[in-house]
Specification:
266 residues, alpha/beta, Carbamate kinase, 6-stranded parallel β-sheet, 9 helices, 6 strands, 37% helix, 14% strand, disordered N terminus
Length: 266
């Protein structure tokens, strides 16, 4: 596997202008929470939690969409790994890992943490959608940090939301977020997967999702689903979306810019 040299350097792309915001959805990828030896680590989560705390101190609201449950489940079952890699095995690992994943965020949060598990049916059915919306709004009014994940234990391939990038985009519309932040170990949209191809180049601007562009990002470390966020037909309202790649430097370098933006409610 090739690691691009520029991932350890300063970002190549110019910083995008950020909007004023009051409510944000922050999606955290599993690669940022998974420890090298298995399980979860707070290495990057501490900086993310500090961003959330600072946002709260400024009167802003943050909804967290967190991956990492499967990685946590694998660590708990080191001596009894599932014999198969099918859907049922993954669902079992996700169920095992939900508690330690939530415990990690609670240990780093000054506010109570609430776990919310959603399914495709919850968001497709109008009544369930409105119930989920009302619950999340009430949690925010109670100054609670909602931590959202897909309910993998009951999801099937045909009805899965895709991944947590897609889930985060839907949740951003669900809670009327002003900003959608994607925290990832990939620091930009690339012409190919930069972890596998040293010639991969960052793309500063995508004006249209052409079939050629779509095909080029199919193995781009989640980039295809991130492109899909912008064209998701089930999300009629689209908040502004920005990525925070950890390959380009410390997470605080990216998220501090968000805290410097005007408060949307001011």
């Amino acid at each position: 596997m090739t690691t691009p040299g520029h991932l350890a350097n300063e970002p190549r792309l110019p910083a995008s202008a950020l909007p004023s915001w009051r409510r944000a959805v922050l999606k955290v990828g599993s690669n940022l929470l998974a420890a090298d030896g298995g399980g979860l680590t707070s290495r990057h989560a501490q900086a993310l939690a500090a961003f959330i705390t600072s946002s709260h101190a400024q009167g802003r609201q943050v909804v967290l969409v967190s991956s990492g449950a499967v990685a946590a489940g694998l660590a708990l079952m080191r001596e009894r790994q599932p014999a198969s890699g099918d859907m049922a095995a993954r669902q079992a690992l996700a169920a095992l890992g939900q508690a330690p994943m939530i415990a990690l965020w609670q240990s780093l949060s000054e506010r109570p943490v609430a776990q919310v598990l959603l399914t495709h049916d919850d968001l497709r059915n109008r009544r369930r959608y409105l119930n989920a919306r009302a619950t999340l709004r009430e949690l925010l009014l109670l100054d609670v940090l909602p931590v959202i994940n897909e309910n993998d234990t009951v999801a099937v391939d045909e009805l899965k939301l895709g991944d947590n990038d897609n889930l985060a985009a839907i949740v951003a519309a669900l809670v009327d977020a002003d900003l959608l932040l994607i925290a990832s170990d990939i620091d930009a949209l690339y012409s190919a997967d930069p972890r596998r191809e040293s010639t991969a180049q960052p793309i500063a601007h995508v004006s249209a999702l052409t079939p050629h562009r779509w095909h080029a990002h199919q193995a781009g470390g989640g980039q295809q689903s991130r492109c899909c966020r912008y064209s998701h037909r089930s999300v009629p309202w689209r908040p502004r979306c920005y990525g925070a790649g950890f390959g380009a430097g410390p997470v605080t370098r990216h998220l501090d810019r968000c805290l410097q933006q005007p408060h949307a409610g001011a």
